[in-house]
Amino acid sequence: MTVSPEEVAKVASLACLTIPDKALPEVTERFGRVLDLVNELNSLETSDVQPMSNPHDMKQRLRPDLVST
């Protein structure tokens, strides 16, 4: 996916990240490769894949919330 250095700088700004001007072309190229990988993963057929178990589906045993010293 083609992204411009301006778009990468905008995303970095929104994420409160500072990318030096010198590094912006390399970061832009890497960011584009990551987006290409995500697009490739989105195009895979997964309708026959069974969902994996998820630990969040289980009940959590919680202790009482007591003040201790």
Mean pLDDT: 89
- Which range best describes the helical content: under 10%, 10-25%, 25-40%, 40-55%, 55-70% or over 70%? 40-55%
Multimeric state of these chains?
Answer: single chain
Instruction: Sketch the topology as an H/E string, one letter per element.
Output: HH
Biggest sheet details: none
How many strand segments?
0
**So what's the overall shape?**
flat
Q: What structural class results from the helix and strand content? A: mainly alpha
Radius of gyration: 21 Å
Q: Cα distance, first to last residue?
A: 55 Å
Low-confidence stretches: none
Tally of helical segments: 2
- What percent strand? under 5%
Describe the protein.
- This protein has 69 residues and is mainly alpha-helical.
- Helix content is 42%, strand content 0%.
- The protein starts with a helix and ends in a 27-residue tail after the last helix.
- The model has no long low-confidence stretch (mean pLDDT 89).
